[in-house]
Write a structure and sequence with these properties.
Radius of gyration: 20 Å
Helix content: 10-25%
Strand content: 25-35%
Structural class: alpha+beta
Shape: globular
Order of helices and strands: EEHEEEEHEEEEHHE
Length: 281
């Protein structure tokens, strides 16, 4: 990893969602009735409860060859999985997601007037909520929380308008897009979608501790269906420095650092000026 420098900061960033998540060894004793009890801990702030299917348990591995996966996978389960529960606040901008092996906090932009509350605010909320969850698990004697992995995700919608208008102008938005098309037959693309992965290494040892996943997809803005938009998603998945909350928070800070620096590297100087880039102290 390059030596750390001041992080870029944006007055009006295009971020529409930030997710902080901690994954742990599955708590087999955490069942659906316990989820109802847990909701009482958060209900005053998150009065809306929903039930969803659990997300996959994902762990980044290194130095192993990975074959391409089949397009269809089958799972045989001995028992129905404990559901993933959503606890939402009234305006649906804040969400807690809880399942037997994961605890997640989302901030989501739901309308054009919503403003990104900044990472420090979201991190503090996540720390407070994760601590309350850990206390609940201990109080109910549901097992030991052993954190295996943590995630940071930033989702950005880059809408057409100032800076770029259509798909042939992508080189005005992204530094990784050259704008050169060698095929006269194909013309400009109707839509695009691609992914990249990059290792995140420990400063001291040089050993990999996580990955940065970059995903780009074109479409239309959910806030203005007449406007073209690029959805740029950056996700850092890392192994905690220690299997406790402090170890999770340390790695989440590193994951956020990689995301913000990479976002700045991926976007052109013209777009960053439109978003009002400065540097953090």
């Amino acid at each position: 990893m390059p030596s750390k420098t001041a992080l870029p900061n944006f007055t009006t960033p295009p971020v529409v969602e930030v997710v902080l998540s901690a994954q742990f060894a599955s708590l087999e004793r955490l069942t659906a009735p316990h989820m109802g009890l847990l909701w009482q801990t958060f209900r005053s702030e998150f009065p809306i409860a929903e039930q969803q299917s659990p997300v996959e348990h994902i762990t980044e591995t290194f130095n192993t060859a990975k074959p391409l996966k089949p397009s269809i996978n089958f799972q045989v389960l001995a028992a129905p999985p404990t559901p993933r529960c959503f606890f939402r606040n009234e305006d649906r901008t804040q969400i807690l997601q809880v399942q037997s092996d994961r605890f997640t906090h989302n901030w989501t932009k739901t309308c054009d007037q919503d403003r990104y509350p900044r990472y420090e605010v979201i991190r503090q909320r996540f720390q407070t909520e994760l601590t309350a969850f850990a206390n609940f698990i201990k109080l109910e004697n549901l097992g030991q929380l052993f954190f295996e992995q943590c995630e940071v995700t930033y989702v950005n919608y880059i809408e057409s308008g100032p800076g770029w208008k259509d798909m042939k102008n992508l080189n005005q938005v992204l530094t990784l897009w050259t704008g050169v098309n060698q095929s006269k037959y194909l013309g400009e693309p109707e839509d695009i979608s691609f992914s990249q992965k990059h290792l995140i290494k420990d400063d001291a040892t040089g050993d990999p501790v996580g990955r940065l996943h970059i995903d780009l997809e074109s479409g239309y803005s959910p806030f203005d269906l007449s406007a073209r938009a690029l959805r740029l998603t950056l996700t850092s998945r890392l192994r905690p420095t220690t299997p406790d909350i402090e170890g999770v928070l340390n790695r989440i800070d590193l994951g956020r650092y990689w995301i913000v620096q990479s976002f700045s590297d991926l976007c052109t100087e013209e777009m960053k000026k439109l978003w009002g880039q400065t540097n953090e102290s």
